[in-house]
Specification:
mainly alpha
Length: 403
């Protein structure tokens, strides 16, 4: 009955529209950014949940993935196997090497995270490949599917909360409070009416039972006790009127108590409304401060990212220029190496020729020295022979003159 009026019907319709998330549309850049980040996260979760299935059927997907993604997946599988082996060995061994095992586990966990990020970056860079993999590799583990579904519900909840204005939120809360209060009142009224109905039924049954007994007694003594019957009937009427008056008084007293309780509950409701309004005002101020801080952080982030992007572009331009210079120098180096090898070959040939000439010169010098020595010896011997002949001739002449 309380919701049958047109005004309350319109309020209910507006509140139901506010509760419907399909009526909400993005109205700010920050909301679109947050929803975009959540959608990208869902896409990454879907692709990361397909990685075990892809690795299990890597031979079937190798042509589709390409060599780079295949190599990264093989490296990821090796890291996963190493992680499982390390966890199994950690459970089997004693606690003496716990710190060393924990350090290795942390390092391996970091490498595994980097491997997952690399694989996701390579996969998400090709949207057509992602769609094909989703179509081919449909099998996911149930925990991953439940987590992705829960994250999608969280995304819809965040979209609803981000796109709901404070006025709509207040109307929604007020509507829910009115509904809960109305349900509570209806439940209390139903409980009270059921109790009264049960009591009335019991009273009615008792009265019917008493009246049946009286009727039976009156039927047996109707002919002899007509006057007594009339007196009894009058007495019953008086008792009924008296009982009706007593019940009416009791009902009025109960209504007064209920009215007093309603007044007390209304006072408590007003006090709670004032308290909640004060807390809501404090929360709104805190929300304004947090929104201001978020805007400042976003602006600072945009400025820092712009500076980093400019620095990256400068470094990339310098790197491209140095790379071009390096390629030019490498070409020159190749030409110079070829010329140097030719010059070295020519030097080697010249050196061999010089060594051969020197060897020949040494041989000729040694031969000439021997020839000269032989010739000198021959001249000396010839000179000594001529002198001996002269001495013999002089001795022969001297002997002749002495005679």
């Amino acid at each position: 009955k309380g919701l049958a009026t047109p005004e309350k019907a319109m309020i209910t319709l507006d509140a139901m529209k506010a509760l419907d998330p399909c009526q909400l549309k993005p109205d700010s850049m920050e909301t679109e950014r947050i929803i975009t980040i959540l959608d990208e996260t869902i896409a990454k979760l879907e692709m990361s949940s397909l990685i075990p299935c892809i690795i299990d059927s890597l031979d079937r997907f190798a042509d589709m993935l390409g060599p780079e993604i295949t190599n990264n997946l093989i490296e990821h599988q090796k890291l996963s196997n190493e992680m499982e082996h390390l966890l199994a060995s950690w459970e089997e061994e004693d606690t003496t090497r716990a710190e060393e095992q924990r350090g290795c586990l942390c390092l391996l966990e970091q490498r595994l995270k980097c491997s997952v990020r690399n694989v996701l970056r390579l996969l998400l860079a090709n949207p057509l490949l992602c769609q094909a993999l989703k179509y081919e590799a449909r099998a996911r583990e149930s925990p991953a599917e439940l987590f992705i579904k829960a994250f999608g519900e969280f995304r819809n909840f965040m979209l609803e909360r981000l796109l709901t204005s404070p006025m709509e939120e207040e109307e929604k809360i007020k509507f829910m409070e009115d509904i809960s209060l109305q349900i509570k009142k209806n439940a209390e009224a139903i409980t009270a009416l059921q109790a009264e109905l049960a009591a009335a039924i019991r009273t009615r049954e008792e009265e019917i039972h008493k009246k049946d007994n009286v009727i039976k007694d009156l039927k047996t003594s109707m002919q002899d006790l007509a006057k007594v019957c009339k007196a009894g009937i009058q007495q019953i009427k008086q008792e009924g009127e008296k009982q009706q008056k007593e019940e009416l008084q009791a009902s009025q007293a109960r209504c007064a108590r209920l009215q007093q309780d309603i007044q007390q509950l209304g006072a408590q409701l007003n006090a709670l409304v004032l308290e909640h309004r004060a807390s809501e005002l404090a929360l709104r101020k805190r929300k304004c401060r947090v929104e201001t801080e978020i805007v400042n952080w976003i602006q600072k982030y945009d400025t820092d990212m712009g500076e980093k992007q400019a620095e990256y572009e400068d470094v990339n331009a310098a790197y491209t220029e140095e790379k071009a210079q390096l390629s030019l120098l490498m070409e020159k180096r190749a030409v110079l190496l070829q010329e140097y090898s030719q010059i070295e070959e020519e030097r080697r040939i010249c050196q061999e020729k010089k060594e051969q000439a020197l060897k020949e010169f040494t041989t000729m010098t040694l031969a000439a020295t021997r020839i000269q020595a032989f010739w000198r010896g021959y001249l000396v011997r010839s000179l000594f022979k001529s002198k001996r002949k002269k001495k013999k001739k002089k001795k022969g002449k001297g002997k002749k003159t002495k005679k």
